[in-house]
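Please decode residue identities from the backbone states below.
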């Protein structure tokens, strides 16, 4: 997992935490008990992050250095390509899942 993705996940978690803390502070400030039947505020869901070519390239490079070069070539062929740049963006996620399974 890339550092950028980890940082984005941390930022999302912090935003969710900040929203929860704000709700608690508002309840405490109003000195009201929250009724148990009150609906919870919807949690912001992070948009599914698009996987970039750089992320796929990084993972494939790591797997290649670990000795899976032939397996990576087979994966590229599975998606109808001979090199990474020929892979369609819609296939990045599936390609990464397949590459992560290489052991």
């Amino acid at each position: 997992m890339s550092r950028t993705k980890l940082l984005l996940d941390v930022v999302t978690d912090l935003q969710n935490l900040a929203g929860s803390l704000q709700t608690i502070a508002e309840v405490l400030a109003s000195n009201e008990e929250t009724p148990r039947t009150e609906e919870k505020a919807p949690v912001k869901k992070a948009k599914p992050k698009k996987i970039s070519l750089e992320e796929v390239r990084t993972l494939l490079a790591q797997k290649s250095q670990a000795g899976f070069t032939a397996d990576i070539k087979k994966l590229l062929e599975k998606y109808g390509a001979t090199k990474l740049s020929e892979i369609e963006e819609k296939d990045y996620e599936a390609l990464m899942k397949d590459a992560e399974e290489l052991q």
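Observation: The CA atoms of residues 75 and 95 lie 7 Å apart.
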